[in-house]
Amino acid sequence: MRTNQVWKWILFLMLCLIWGSSFKLMEESASVINPNRLAALRIFSAAVFFLPLAIFHFRSIPSRQIALVALNGTIGNLLPAFLFAFALNDPAITGPMGGILNALTPLCVVTIAILFYRDRVALHRLFGIGIGLTGLVLLTLLPVIRGEAELTVARLLPTLAILTGTVLYGINVNLVAHRLQGVKPLHLASVSIALMIIPTALLLWYFDFSTLAFEDQAVQAAIWKGIALGIAGSALATILFYQLLQLAGGLFASLVTYGIPVVAVIVGWIDNIKIDPLQILSLAIILSGVYLVNKRS
Fold first, then answer.
1. C-alpha distance from residue 153 to each of 78, 150, 157, 160, 242 (Å)
2. What gap in Å lies between CA 129 and CA 125, rounded to an integer?
3. Which of 37, 189, 264, 265 is 20 to 30 A distant from 14 in Cα terms?
4. Who contacts 70 (Cβ-Cβ below 8 Å, separation ≥6)?
5. pLDDT of 176-196, one tens digit each?
6. Sign for the pseudo-dihedral over CA of 34, 40, 46, 48
7. Tens digits of per-residue pLDDT, 230-255?
8. How many CB atoms sit inside 10 A of residue 150's CB?
């Protein structure tokens, strides 16, 4: 049992590092190549990476669950990739801000679990989520409080795109936890993402990916970052996430999104974005929420 607890936290930290740093890569890449091309490239790269495994593991998926596995790849990877790439192409949404908004996922997970699966969630865990969201709100509003930015209508659309992505993540977490529990993480991740290879190939063609200025070093760097996002941020991280999901449950697994803004802000600090004591306080509040949600009754 203790080994499972240690492994659970190792997976948690690995995912926080991978996904927390991915927002910076998305922000940089989306500013160079079209966000739609970036999203299609990301998932196509992940699908190519997983294709050999998927061919091997496809028969291990019950035929009655293939449609659910395809849905899993669509709402858990494909659509969110486009939503986040679109949002992070907007100057109003920085990498750290994307990570912060993404942390609304646990609230979506719990809400969907209660409404559609009639799950019961302990009061102290709901309280922990509330504390975590309080820290997120404070962290989000700090630029406004300091007078460095304003809440404008121009920020609404990219923010709604990320919020839509968190809803899709919430649906997907519950889908895996309630309908695909018997499928091994490696099988689920490899097959669900590999099934995206045809739609993403068509999307790359539709968005004229071949017309990019491949001789431009900035474009080359953006493409490599997109491939890295696909292999690390979508393929490998998906395996780790599904492993965490089956080991610790949907609620705790979704709380990875509380650690993501911590890493995203640290990456921003390394990139010379000012970090002040209020931001550190916000992160401490977020981590307190994670602790409460994980605490046993």
1. 27, 10, 8, 11, 37
2. 6
3. 37
4. 192, 195
5. 888 888 888 888 889 999 999
6. negative
7. 999 888 888 888 788 778 876 677 67
8. 10
